């Protein structure tokens, strides 16, 4: 089956509309519908439920989408590698968990690029659940995560240690040190992500016969910038990785509030395959060495 079939399928699945996907692919709606019908006939399953409101993936379609996402990324990586070969350049693709990408990583890669001009570096924001499969399937070369790899075929090296910090605007009326019970007095904006901030608070409060539901949570956010902006605008307190707000703390825009009875430390890891450890060992060793110099 031609790669274009899978691209058409992916566009329809993500747009949830045949007409929108047809416009995106610059083909007619009828031609795209025919391509989808051919694909369903070849596979022997129905991929979409069609209605006047658009299209929805069937259970079989959802299974196919997971594989097609990997396939298209691998195909794009293949084209990039071929182009890099033509230019006599080696591309290194780095997946970073999206809440870490805006912190120290760009400056680290800026210095690495000067050290290794033979490499073209590409940094991707990646959800933590996709990072390991990208590495195993050679879609990316390195991963930067706040957890070690679960896949035993991957290697994990600790880059540095950081901690989650409770912050507010510099003008917000809150002491510099509080307890977990004191948190109940303040409005909170909580990051709803894979760093398990909600769970850490819940466990600490359980020891005091309280729960997360007792907190005054104004709203949950998925984006670090939304939490940071909310704190800057005096909406309330929030908890973020210190590396992501250290500049604001040093400039006096935000202030750090210690929580006496909650441990919020975590580590950042570099993840890679055994094969890449051999191929780009010098680059990996440089990233590990330079990360140790970073003060957070």
From TrEMBL:
The keyword Kinase does not apply. CDD domains: PBP2_LTTR_substrate. It comes from the Bacteria. InterPro entries: LysR_HTH_N (IPR000847), LysR_subst-bd (IPR005119), WH-like_DNA-bd_sf (IPR036388), WH_DNA-bd_sf (IPR036390). Residues 1-58 form the HTH lysR-type domain. GO terms for molecular function: DNA-binding transcription factor activity; transcription cis-regulatory region binding. SUPFAM superfamilies: Periplasmic binding protein-like II, Winged helix' DNA-binding domain. Keywords: DNA-binding, Transcription, Transcription regulation. Belongs to the LysR transcriptional regulatory family. This is DNA-binding transcriptional regulator, LysR family.
């Amino acid at each position: 089956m031609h790669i274009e079939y899978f691209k058409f399928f992916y566009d329809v699945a993500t747009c949830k509309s045949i007409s929108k996907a047809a416009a995106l692919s610059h083909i007619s709606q009828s031609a795209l519908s025919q391509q989808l019908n051919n694909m369903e006939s070849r596979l022997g399953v129905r991929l979409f439920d069609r209605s006047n409101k658009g299209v929805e993936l069937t259970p079989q379609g959802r299974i196919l989408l997971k594989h097609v996402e990997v396939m298209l990324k691998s195909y794009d990586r293949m084209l990039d590698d071929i182009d890099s070969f033509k230019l006599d350049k080696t591309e290194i693709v780095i997946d970073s968990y999206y809440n870490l990408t805006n912190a120290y990583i760009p400056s680290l890669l800026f210095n690495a690029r000067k050290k290794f001009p033979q490499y073209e570096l590409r940094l991707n924001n990646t959800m933590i659940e996709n990072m390991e499969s990208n590495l195993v399937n050679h879609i990316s070369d390195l991963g930067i995560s706040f957890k070690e790899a679960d896949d035993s075929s991957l290697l994990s090296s600790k880059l540095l240690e950081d901690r989650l910090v409770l912050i507010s605007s510099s003008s917000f009326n809150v002491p510099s040190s509080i307890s977990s019970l004191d948190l109940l007095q303040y409005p909170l904006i909580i990051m709803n992500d894979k760093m398990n901030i909600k769970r850490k608070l819940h466990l600490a409060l359980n020891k005091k016969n309280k729960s997360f539901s007792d907190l005054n949570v104004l709203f949950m956010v998925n984006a670090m910038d939304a939490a940071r902006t909310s704190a800057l605008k005096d909406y309330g307190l929030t908890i973020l990785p210190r590396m992501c707000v250290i500049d604001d703390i040093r400039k006096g825009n935000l202030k750090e509030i210690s929580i006496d009875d909650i441990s919020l430390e975590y580590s950042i890891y570099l993840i890679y395959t055994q094969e890449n450890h051999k191929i780009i060992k010098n680059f990996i060793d440089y990233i590990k060495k330079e990360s140790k110099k970073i003060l957070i």
